[in-house]
Amino acid sequence: MHITVFSAQPYDQRFFEQTCHTQFADSDLHFTYQASALGMKTLALAAGSQAVCVFVNDVLDAPVLEGLYEQGVRAIVLRCAGFNNVDLKVAERLGMYVARVPAYSPEAVAEHAVALIQTLNRRIHRAYNRVREGNFQLDGLLGMTLHGKTVGIVGTGKIGLALARIMKGFGCRVLGYDPCPQEDFNRLGELVDLPTLLADSDIVSLHCPLLPATEHLIDADALAAMKPGAMLINTSRGGLIDTPAVVSALKMRHLGALAIDVYEQESGIFFKDHSDDIIDDDVLQRLVTFPNVLVTGHQGFFTREALSEIAEVTLGNLCAYQAGTDNPNALVAASHR
Ligand code: NAI
């Protein structure tokens, strides 16, 4: 089977080839790697493939799915957990198989959230630059002791639970909001409604998926409901936050600090080097001028362990498709083969 891998980075290729060689040596999987993201303009790159492998910013809406189908593509494997970029209803209508990697080291994302919290809190980003310039002054680097502070976790699934475990270890009071909470959370913290979580938390961290119901969950009203000076962390999906409203809350000095690993308009910007370009996104450019804002480029998942797991599960998803076996990772089962 031929598979075109879109939005492929050198590390994707490295981990895929390594895993294919060591764990799937008997399989009949042949990969072509394309650096371009999948969209209407790049559809033709999938010609001759029976499957495509995509990532978070590839667009698989109705016209793209229909175009892929016309070219003979019958399977879509996502090398991520979130699937908000795929029109599953259309895939189902076309009988296309869609599978994802439901979890790859949830701890990797939770640990990145903690790295963001402590970098912002203890001003490590500023301290690093100061010391390199020979400036050892502490003024402007004042942080807070996390022990005893309240951390609100929105979405208590795999990543939310991992973060709850870590923050409990810091001695924090942990609050969680989730319409379908997991029982495990009760051992770590207290489940509350969203207004209570926003009002009581010193740090709010988002770990729910992007769905129509969660789009702009953090809007101007939610920001106003947060504790003055609180910190907001988003390692989930950019669309959970109304970014211009966040910029206003920062300018009003109501929101104390912001760290984002994901951004609503990240597609076309993240995962690429723009250091020699002019970035035409004024909201993102404004965000990075704040001393109390930290932006990372969707690297929460980026650990060796997670990349190995992504490659292993994705290749397994392709083999399950080929073999026609039931696969719990399938979002849409194949109906044409
Ligand atoms: P999960 O499916 O285990 O947990 C998500 C939780 O959110 C579930 O418990 C669900 O009930 C809850 N939820 C649904 N609607 C909600 C709402 N309206 N309010 C609050 N909670 C709600 O997913 P997991 O593995 O914990 O991942 C969470 C998100 O993290 C993914 O959807 C993905 O967007 C993001 N992610 C980001 C990565 C990165 O590199 N930055 C890597 C992997 C995932």
TrEMBL record:
This protein's record includes keyword DNA repair: no
Signal peptide segment: none
Domain D-isomer specific 2-hydroxyacid dehydrogenase catalytic: 5-331
Superkingdom of source: Bacteria
Coiled coil: none
Pfam families: 2-Hacid_dh, 2-Hacid_dh_C
Family: Belongs to the D-isomer specific 2-hydroxyacid dehydrogenase family.
Protein name: 2-hydroxyacid dehydrogenase
